[in-house]
Specification:
The chain has five helices and seven strands. The protein is of the alpha+beta class. It has a four-stranded mixed sheet with strand order 2-6-5-4. The protein has a three-stranded antiparallel sheet with strand order 1-3-7.
């Protein structure tokens, strides 16, 4: 897990340039709930820009680059690994149980649920491994994940956290 610190450079992939993140434009029911998602890794942001471009039927893709200025006054939750706590939190957000999954923090850091993880989560939520919430179902689902292959993501949940992001530049990847 990457350390969160002042002056950290972060990347956001999209089909548009994002200079001023707006939580009102962020979608619900993501891994860590509604928030502005960034990556520690430019390559991962590029992959996400490709995904968003295809999903939206766009012909543009960008990486917006930000610097995280100060974190000392922010509440941060870090999921160090894809374990039962992380899995339950992601599932709660995916099944639209935002009240249950509300951590009352400014930033959440942890593994991103990739396509293979999403399939496992969907099977788990449809009782394919046993009743949702049972130890057997959770153990089976976690056994099917490949957490060592999952990348990290950072989710800015509050305006207070977003105010600590400084837009540095953007990269136009549309011709790649």
């Amino acid at each position: 897990m990457r350390e969160i610190d002042n002056n950290l450079i972060l990347y956001h992939g999209s089909d548009c340039i994002v200079k001023e993140p707006d939580l009102n434009k962020c979608k619900f029911y993501k891994d860590f709930g509604r928030g502005f998602y960034l990556s520690f890794d430019e390559k991962q942001a590029k992959q996400f820009a490709n995904l968003v471009m295809r999903r939206n039927g766009s012909n543009t893709k960008y990486i917006s680059v930000f610097k995280l200025n100060r974190i000392d006054n922010l509440k941060i939750k870090i999921f160090n690994k894809a374990d039962e706590e992380w899995f339950n939190f992601v599932c709660d957000n995916r099944r639209h149980d935002s009240l249950k999954s509300n951590l009352n923090v400014d930033i959440i850091v942890g593994k991103i649920a990739d396509d293979a993880t999403t399939a496992v989560i969907n099977d788990y939520l449809s009782d394919a491994f046993g009743p949702v919430g049972s130890k057997k179902a959770i153990k089976t689902a976690l056994g099917l994940l490949l957490p060592n292959r999952l990348n990290d993501q950072i989710c800015f949940k509050t305006k207070k956290a977003i105010n600590q992001l400084e837009h540095i530049t953007f990269k136009d990847l549309s011709n790649e």
